[in-house]
Write a structure and sequence with these properties.
376 residues; alpha/beta; Rossmann fold; six-stranded parallel sheet; 12 helices; 38% helix; globular
């Protein structure tokens, strides 16, 4: 056998071995850690069925009694719990972290994880302010990590099908108006625990009240639906309807975004009589309403459907944030530039929230290009 043939055979064997090693690595669960337990969305990951795609290797939470209470509820070992993020990461070496701490602490989390090559997914919104967001995004870019923002509504089949109806099937024509109703009766009224309330109702730690908590959902989906287009202007009105319960932050916010041929209204409230995260999209010749995660109401060419339409099940990889994040990190899913969790989308979301706060404070409409061009 010639040396050339022998070399080619060896290269082929090495290539097959390398591929096998890569496949094996992809089959191993992603080593993840949890930063903080004070955001009650953490129950989503703690109570999640073990699917073999992720492995929780550590939890950083200084509140020992809270960690013990959740340990009893969800059955994890207290051996996983560390009093600080730094100690936990140094000892467990996670590939990625999920941040369930205060929104204010998102920057600290990224500042520590990014230089170590650890990917980060935070709970919505990305940050407490545009300033924090820009620092986080710069760190993610510099150290080449994934920095995603998780919204519950990302995993709604109805929203995904609405995108298809609007942009792929073009059933309702060009978008003219979007209306979002998001919120609930109030965090105190629905029984949020004291650890959650301590920061959720603090304007520094949360970045606001109902405006931050629920305004971000509509801003995120609107930016996605508009394919990353920034609005021309932002107007916002906030109110304190329950100052006895929420003395530091607004409990009511209405945001209006204008685009060249589209208007978006976001009604974020801690005063609804029930919990809701619904969307109405009106086109030039029809509409699609998404009253919840599974159902839709349609009108096409002036003809209203009387019955709700069931959304298709979410495809593999898109059923929850943990599965999605693992597949993005592994390269099994290529995230679009303006997907719902993507950094570019959430950079715009943070600017919308920033402009909304300014508008509410000044009583004036914020003109996008005038305000944000001055900052650059």
């Amino acid at each position: 056998m010639s040396r050339v043939c022998l070399f080619l055979i060896c290269m082929m064997l090495f290539s097959n071995l390398s591929k096998a090693q890569q496949d094996s690595a992809h089959k191993k669960p992603l080593r993840v850690a949890i930063i903080g337990l004070v955001h009650t969305h953490v129950h989503w990951i703690l109570g999640r069925e073990k699917l073999g795609d992720i492995e929780i290797v550590g939890i950083a939470e200084p509140n020992r009694s809270l960690a013990e209470a959740y340990s009893k509820q969800h059955g994890y070992s207290m051996d996983l719990v560390y009093s600080s993020m730094e100690e936990m990461i140094e000892k467990t070496k996670p590939e990625a972290v999920f941040a369930f701490n205060t929104i204010y602490d998102h920057l600290k989390t990224v500042a520590y994880c990014a230089p170590r090559g650890i990917h980060v997914m935070v709970e919505k919104p990305l940050a407490v302010s545009q300033e924090h967001a820009e620092k986080m995004l710069a760190l993610a870019s510099k150290y080449h990590i994934q920095l995603l923002t998780n919204y519950e509504t990302t995993w709604y089949g109805s929203n995904r099908d609405a995108w298809k109806i609007i942009h792929e099937d073009k059933q309702i024509g060009d978008i003219r108006k979007m209306v979002f109703h998001t919120g609930h009766q109030g965090p105190i009224e629905i029984g949020c625990n004291k650890e959650f309330l301590e920061w959720l109702t603090d304007p520094v730690l949360d970045g606001g009240g109902a405006l931050t908590d629920f305004g971000c959902y509509g801003a995120d989906i609107a930016t996605w639906m508009m394919k990353g287009e920034a609005p021309l202007s932002v107007s916002c009105v906030t109110q304190h309807m329950k100052p006895d319960l929420y003395p530091k932050v607004e409990d009511e916010a209405t945001i209006i975004l204008t685009y060249p041929k589209t208007q978006v209204i976001i009604q974020a409230s801690w005063n609804w009589p029930f919990s809701r995260k619904d969307m109405e999209v009106y086109g030039t010749n029809g509409y699609v309403f998404c009253p919840d995660r599974d159902n839709m109401l349609l009108m096409e060419n002036g003809k209203r459907q009387q019955d709700t339409v069931k959304a298709a099940p979410m495809p593999d990889g898109y059923r929850d944030p943990f599965m999605y994040f693992a597949k993005v990190i592994r390269g099994d899913i290529k995230m679009g530039a303006f997907d719902l969790s993507a950094p570019a989308t959430n950079a715009i979301v943070m600017k919308i929230l920033e402009a909304s706060k300014i508008s509410a404070k000044t009583g004036k409409t914020v003109i996008w290009k005038d305000y944000f061009s001055k900052q650059n």
